[in-house]
Design a protein that fits this description.
It is built from ten helices and no strands. It is mainly α and about 280 residues long. The chain folds into two domains: about 140 residues, no CATH class; about 140 residues, no CATH class. Keywords: Membrane, Transmembrane, Transmembrane helix. It comes from Arthrobacter parietis. This is DUF1206 domain-containing protein.
Length: about 280
């Protein structure tokens, strides 16, 4: 092996050791807590909307709500650091996957963790923006982005692909909840009533999040087909659109409680996630 190869190997080994260090793992686990808190707040806002109140049941609304609480700035920074640490950990899994994987399994593992890394990095950046006193976009920014894409030659095809992609992710969430596939990622889960409660939270939460994402995907596709960007209004619009259905208030309330369950499960997951 050349000197350059040996140096590259040393760098790779150092990066892998850093990703496996206890302090880094603890920080990465905090990312699950941050994601859980985000979903709990979205669910609480959605319950308020279902009860006739106001608010934006989406990421922007949840972060804005957190920023307005006592010690909100500290909490936002803690969530930002946790999400970014988790994103880096997942990215390390892309470059250093388990050696037992090979072929198709290895590719799927890398792609899944790469996608998750981007999601948590985006959430972490969002927390940091609010901690700095800025604000992320809501439904309005989603509509503006959709309008800009619709006006470009390849934009509609891209939006359709995004909508279909969201539907696929939504289906996976529902499937994972119904089959309890999410338990594959847990280690050391307690037995008895406590373990059953964790499984129940995960089942309800995954299905509820799948429903919310499914509605969002349908709205994106509908907005593209009808060339109406106002119909593409993000998670806020997706959840509020549930109210327009028969018994919509109850449907929105049930999905909102499910999102809260998912959030609590994510907090618990931070303790039992296999890493």
């Amino acid at each position: 092996m050349s000197d350059l190869g040996r140096q590259a190997r040393k760098v790779a080994d150092g990066a892998e050791d850093a990703a496996d260090s206890k302090p880094f793992i603890i920080a990465a686990r905090a990312g699950y807590v941050a994601a859980g808190l985000l979903h709990i707040l979205i669910g609480v806002i959605a319950v308020r909307v279902a009860s006739g109140g106001s608010g934006s049941p989406d990421q922007a609304g949840a972060m804005s709500s957190l920023a307005s609480t006592p010690f909100g700035g500290i909490l936002l920074w803690a969530c930002a650091i946790g999400c970014c640490a988790l994103a880096l950990f997942l990215l390390s899994e892309v470059f250093f996957p388990p050696q037992r994987l090979d072929g198709k399994e290895d590719v799927i593992y890398r792609l899944k963790n790469g996608g998750k890394a981007m999601v948590y990095a985006a959430i972490g950046i969002g927390f940091a923006q609010y901690a700095l006193g800025g604000g992320g976009g809501g439904g309005g920014s989603t509509q503006s982005t959709s309008a800009a894409l619709m006006a470009s030659p390849a934009g509609p095809a891209l939006l359709l692909a995004i909508g279909v992609g969201i539907l696929i992710v939504a289906g996976y969430f529902v499937y994972s909840g119904v089959t309890q596939k999410f338990e594959e990622h847990l280690s050391g889960k307690p037995s008895g009533s406590t373990g059953k409660a964790i499984t129940t939270l995960g089942t309800i939460g995954y299905v509820a999040k799948g429903i919310a994402l499914g509605v969002l995907g349908i709205l994106v596709i509908t907005a593209t087909v009808t060339h109406d960007p106002e119909k593409s209004s993000g998670l806020d619009g997706a959840l509020k659109s549930l109210q327009e259905q028969p018994f919509g208030v109850y449907i929105l309330g049930a999905v909102a409680l499910g999102l809260i369950a998912y959030g609590v499960f994510m907090v618990v997951r931070s303790r039992y996630q296999r890493m």
